[in-house]
């Protein structure tokens, strides 16, 4: 770390600075988005989910059911809003269902 912190910094502040200095936020976002998908979609959707990948601000979700893919495609904007609300910041801008 280039900047030395004073002794009164909180652990949270130190971690935020480490994440910022080492540019770790994109990797953390990928993990957080996968966890948010699992928590929000429930067992039914997770059973048919093969892969969840965040590239940039686009979430790519691979599903094994064409019916489920079609059903979820009608609520893409709601999925984006739910995931961003779960993460408490705007990470996902678009969802691509495959």
Describe the structure.
With 98 residues, the protein is α+β, with helices and mostly antiparallel strands. The chain has a single domain, classed as GMP Synthetase, Chain A, domain 3. Helices cover 56% and strands 17% of the residues. It is built from four helices and three strands. The chain has helices at 11-21, 25-48, 66-73, 76-87; strands spanning 49-55, 58-63, 94-97. The chain has a three-stranded mixed sheet with strand order 1-2-3. A hairpin with a 2-residue loop joins strand 1 and strand 2 (58-63). Helix 2 packs across helix 4. The protein starts with 10 loop residues before the first helix and ends with a strand. The mean pLDDT is 90.
Keywords, please?
DUF721 domain-containing protein; DciA-like; GMP Synthetase, Chain A, domain 3; three-stranded mixed sheet; about 100 residues; alpha+beta
- Nearest-angstrom radius of gyration? 17 Å
Which spans have pLDDT < 50 for at least 5 consecutive residues? none
Widest beta sheet: strand line-up: 1-2-3
Molecular shape: elongated
Major sheet summary line:
3 strands, mixed
CATH class: Alpha Beta
Instruction: Return the CATH architecture.
Output: 2-Layer Sandwich
Helix content: 55-70%
In whole angstroms, how far apart are the ends? 41 Å
Total tally of structural domains: 1
CATH topology: GMP Synthetase, Chain A, domain 3
């Amino acid at each position: 770390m280039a900047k030395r912190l004073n002794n009164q910094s909180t652990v949270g502040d130190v971690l935020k600075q480490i994440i910022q200095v080492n540019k770790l936020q994109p990797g953390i976002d990928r993990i957080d988005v996968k966890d948010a998908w699992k928590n929000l979609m429930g067992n039914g959707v997770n059973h048919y989910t093969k892969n969840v990948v965040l590239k940039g601000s686009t979430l790519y979700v691979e599903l094994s059911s064409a019916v489920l893919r079609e059903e979820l495609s009608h609520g893409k904007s709601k999925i984006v809003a739910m995931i961003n609300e779960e993460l408490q910041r705007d990470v996902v801008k678009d969802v691509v269902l495959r």
